[in-house]
Design goal:
By secondary structure, the protein is an alpha/beta fold. It has four helices and 39 strands.
Length: about 350
């Protein structure tokens, strides 16, 4: 795809300084710019590259004035960083805009397909599935019976959606993710052998959710596992049965959340965090990477840390650990008195 400077300026509500007819077909960093590419300058530290880059078009802030002659076209906007981000989204949308049904693929006769839908080769669309308008189903995707997928949602290659799942509008689910597999529910008998508990609930994913590659979200035992509006999940995350993740919470890679835990809104959870089951994490909570959360957390908590040792010793030590600041103050006060 090629775009002229004037077309780009129109999208960004900017002004062209140079050749409005010049074309670009790719994006680049300013220090790595090549002929036919578009880049941007927002950080003053990178200004020196404006005079050496080979990019054809550079987006700059409205107030920027070059101190040397430049042989390229400038597009001046209110905020170059935000404008380039907007352009990235526009470019990505255009790149991913596919329409039509490829073969071979299987679509049940009972499925309802919206307008401007794309279904890639070797995809499977089960009985009574409902696909909204502009849904994109990439190759090798499985969509189980009775699943509903809202408008403008994209399932990338290899995604597996089990039966009776509800996915909202404007969602992106990346390759290898599995939504709606059985939760980890087993009952031991007198012999110590385990029997699976049927998991007959589902998963509900609300609007504007992004799910990274290789992430797994288990279906509920009863009721629903729920991912609320605006949640962003990184790659390789495990969300267990009956978990609820609140609106606009973001979670980094390799985090695991055990069954029936409720995570609040606007939380930020780092990578490789382990959260036990049947607890509540409040709103606006921040959990640092590599932490283990074993108890409920109140709103606005900021926590870090996890060390495993004898359970009884841990419980006794934790009492002192909580009072460590007070103990240090007491020691300092005693040392002061001894010196006196």
């Amino acid at each position: 795809m090629k775009f002229t400077a004037s077309q780009i300026a129109e999208v960004l509500e900017g002004e062209v300084y140079g050749k409005p007819e010049i074309e670009v077909s790719k994006l680049s960093k300013i220090e790595e710019g090549e002929k036919g590419s578009l880049t941007f300058l927002s950080n003053p530290k990178y200004t020196k590259f404006l005079y050496t880059t080979k990019a054809s078009i550079v987006i700059v802030n409205k107030e920027f004035e070059p101190t040397k002659e430049v042989n390229l076209t400038l597009i001046k906007v209110k905020d170059a960083g935000k404008a380039f981000s907007k352009l990235l989204a526009y470019y990505n949308q255009a790149k991913l805009h596919k329409v039509g049904i490829e073969t071979p693929s299987y679509i049940s006769e009972t499925a309802k397909i919206g307008e401007e839908v794309y279904i890639g080769a070797f995809a499977y669309i089960g009985n009574n599935v409902v696909l909204g308008d502009n849904v994109k189903i990439y190759p090798n995707v499985y969509v189980g019976d009775g699943t509903t997928i809202g408008d403008n949602t994209t399932l990338f290659a290899g995604v597996k959606i089990y039966s009776e799942i509800v996915i909202g509008k404007n969602c992106n689910i990346n390759s290898g993710s599995v939504i709606g597999c059985d939760g980890f529910g087993f009952l031991p008998d007198e012999k110590g052998e385990y029997t699976a508990i049927p998991q007959i609930g589902n998963v509900i994913i609300e609007d504007n959710v992004d799910i990274g590659a290789g992430t797994t979200i288990d279906r509920a035992t009863l009721g629903s596992t729920i991912i609320r509006q605006g949640v962003k999940l990184d790659n390789q995350i495990q969300v267990a049965h009956n978990v609820v993740i609140g609106k606009n919470t973001v979670i980094a890679a390799q985090t695991g959340i055990a069954g029936s835990t409720k995570v609040g809104e606007q939380c930020m959870i780092g990578g490789q965090v382990a959260i036990v089951g049947h607890i509540t994490v409040g709103n606006n909570v921040k959990v640092q990477a590599l932490s283990g959360v074993a108890r409920s957390l109140k709103d606005d908590a900021v926590v870090q840390g996890s060390r495993a040792f004898n359970y009884s010793d841990w419980n006794r030590s934790y009492v002192h650990f909580k009072n460590l600041g007070k103990l240090v103050a007491r020691v300092n006060e005693l040392e002061k008195k001894l010196k006196e």
